[in-house]
Amino acid sequence: QFLAGPSFVFITVFVYISVLNVVGDGGWYTLTFNDAIKECAARNLVLATYDDVQTAWDSGLSLCSYGWVSARLNVIALHDSTYCLNGVVGFNTGSLPSVTNAYCKYP
């Protein structure tokens, strides 16, 4: 999914070291766990594991975006939280409601 304008393209998939943070068609933080699995599959991807996202974070991933991982957890990976989470940094599990984005990976 993308929005095109005269001088920009906004893509709703963020890629970092084979781990993608996928936003559902309904917008940010709209995916249930089962929806997250389907969104990944629709892109020929699978839901990433906790370790996949941890490895990406260890390699520099920093996104102000929670996402489902295969362990039914919401995780966020931040090195710089200047504009996110009131200064909290690290690789953390979240306490979001039952909807969020998805972390997907290539199978």
Give a description of the structure.
This protein is α+β, with helices and mostly antiparallel strands and 107 residues long. Helices cover 18% and strands 32% of the residues. Strands 3, 4, 5, 6, 7, 8 and 9 form a 7-stranded mixed sheet that branches. Strands 1-2 form a two-stranded antiparallel ribbon. A hairpin with a 4-residue loop joins β1 and β2. It is globular.
Number of strands: 9
Q: Report the oligomer.
A: single chain
End-to-end separation in angstroms reads 21 Å
Report on the biggest sheet.
Answer: 7 strands, mixed
Gyration radius, in Å: 13 Å
Beta-strand residue percentage: 25-35%
Taking pLDDT < 50 over at least 5 consecutive residues as the criterion, the unreliable ranges are: 1-13
**String of helices and strands:** EEEEHEHEEEE
- How would you describe the shape? globular
SS content category: alpha+beta
Q: Average pLDDT across residues? A: 80
Estimate the helix proportion, in percent. 10-25%
Q: Output the number of helix runs.
A: 2
Structure summary:
It contains two helices and nine strands, in the order ββββαβαββββ. It is α+β, with helices and mostly antiparallel strands.
Any descriptors?
107 residues, 7-stranded mixed β-sheet, 2 helices, 18% helix, disordered N terminus
